[in-house]
Specification:
By secondary structure, this protein is an alpha+beta fold. It has two domains: about 250 residues, Immunoglobulins (Immunoglobulin-like, Sandwich); about 100 residues, Immunoglobulin-like. The protein is built from three helices and 27 strands. The strands form five sheets. The protein has a seven-stranded mixed beta barrel. Strands 8-17-16-11-12-13 form a six-stranded mixed β-sheet, with no helix packed on it. Strands 18, 20, 23, 24 and 25 form a five-stranded antiparallel β-sheet that branches. Strand 1 and strand 2 form a beta hairpin. The radius of gyration is 38 Å and the shape is elongated. The termini are far apart. InterPro entries: Ig-like_dom, Ig-like_dom_sf, Ig-like_fold, Ig/MHC_CS, Ig_C1-set, Ig_sub, Ig_V-set, Immune_Resp_Modulators. Keywords: Immunoglobulin domain, Membrane, Signal, Transmembrane, Transmembrane helix. This is Ig-like domain-containing protein.
């Protein structure tokens, strides 16, 4: 038998094994999504409503080597077959999937006009387009993608643009540098633009705008930059903040524009400033029956949400007890935008509380373990002579000794002068 037959048979077996393993590696289940539409509202008497349609998102094999699974869902379900050259939708742990219709159109912004300056839109814009938002539980990213037609069938789609960033809220310390993350995939499209906006309390502003086609910065706010080397080589469109200020607290929006389409990701930034805590009086001395006001001064913290408690551990106890009746002053705003306030509590010093330790405990997002200051109450006359009392008595004795010595010399000098006069 010809040896080449055995080589051919072995090759077929290996290829079959590789195909099977490839299929297992790329086999993905359908992703359950929801198509969100706003309907109604044609007149003032008809309110707008939200309609949600179930969607099955079938991720196609880019090489068409995996057979398409049969569709067994309900007839009301919309089926979309998507090819994902970006690779951002192939994670096995995608969740929170939402689809909306997208209307491709020109954008009247200075940094976007060059993308569509020829005024000729492609034929593909006549087919349905969708915006897709999914959360990747593996990486922790949320992906916003634009799905457009792949061929003439309306249910055959491909990813044209993907923008991704962390889903969790970002925390940054006041005064520190910061990189607000935003990654993009745009395939081979060379025409693109990037816009960074900041929004807080209803007010918005453009921090950075870049026209990638002409390689020109169109808008820039002082203190913000982008790394163009990582942008063009790795799709890293992160915004670099020189020093985080209280005014950066709010929502950062990263918007990527391609001709006639765009995708956006928003990230919430919490600016934190660690509070400075001072617990007064320090030292904590009192006479029996004296009223003392404990003051816990908490200054230069951000954000405003904070909790302040005064606690005590009595000499015979091993546990801390929260003291009721603590009053909080109104907060003040400092020049840098941080806040300050004072918590106070009046106590009566008694001999039984000698040696009690009082604590001021502050809970704030900038200090997960809290900030604590403490003082120990010393009641006069309870524990006998203290070192301070001994020093005080020594000083009194020294002063008394000096006074008596001075008077003794004066009397001796006076009586010695009288005796001398009598002798004469």
């Amino acid at each position: 038998m010809n040896p080449r037959f055995f080589y051919l048979l072995l090759s077929l077996l290996l290829n079959g094994f590789e195909f099977h393993e490839f299929g297992k590696a790329h086999e993905t289940k359908s992703l359950a999504c929801v198509l969100v539409e706003e309907i109604g509202g044609g007149s003032s008497s008809i309110p707008r409503t939200i309609r949600q349609t179930p969607v099955e998102l079938h991720l196609n094999d880019p090489l068409n080597l995996i057979p398409v699974a049969p569709i067994t869902s309900s007839p009301e379900t919309l089926h979309l077959h998507v090819t994902d050259p970006s690779g951002k939708l192939l994670s096995p742990k995608l969740s929170s999937c939402e689809v909306t219709y997208l209307l491709p159109q020109e954008v009247p912004l200075a940094w976007v006009r060059s993308l569509t300056e020829e005024k000729r839109s492609p034929r593909a814009l006549g087919h349905p387009w969708y915006s897709l938002s999914v959360k990747d539980d593996t990486s922790g990213n949320t992906v916003s993608a634009v799905l457009g037609p792949q061929g003439e069938k309306d249910d055959q789609l491909t990813v044209f643009l993907a923008v991704y960033s962390p889903s969790a809220t970002l925390y940054a310390r006041l005064g520190d540098p910061l990189s607000v993350p935003c990654g993009i995939w745009r395939g081979q499209q060379s025409r693109f633009a990037i816009e960074w906006r900041h929004r807080a309390l209803g007010d918005g502003r453009v921090l950075y705008a870049y026209d990638g086609r002409v390689d020109r910065i169109e808008e820039i706010f002082p203190g913000y930059e982008m790394n163009f080397s990582t942008l063009h080589s790795h799709g890293n469109a992160s915004l670099l903040v020189d020093k985080v200020a209280v005014s950066d607290h709010g929502t950062f929006l990263c918007t990527i524009y391609l001709p006639y389409i765009r995708a956006q990701r928003d990230m919430q930034l919490e600016v934190t400033a660690l509070p400075t805590v001072t617990f007064l009086p320090d030292p904590l001395f009192a006479r029996p029956g004296q009223e003392i006001t404990l003051s816990c001064e908490v200054s230069h913290f951000h954000p405003l949400a904070i909790s302040v408690h005064i606690l005590v551990r009595l000499p015979e106890d091993s546990q801390l007890s929260v003291l009721p009746g603590v009053s909080l002053s109104t907060h003040t705003i400092n020049k840098d935008g941080t806040f300050s306030l004072t918590a106070s509590l009046s106590i009566i010093a008694s001999p039984e509380h000698h040696g009690a330790r009082y604590f001021c405990r502050v809970r704030h997002v900038s200090a997960p373990e809290g900030v604590t200051r403490s003082n120990t109450l010393q009641v006069a006359g309870v524990a006998g002579l203290s070192l301070e009392d001994g020093m005080y008595l020594f000083m009194v004795a020294l002063a008394l000794y000096g006074s008596l010595t001075f008077l003794h010399r004066k009397f001796k000098l006076f009586f010695g002068t009288q005796e001398s006069k009598k002798d004469e």
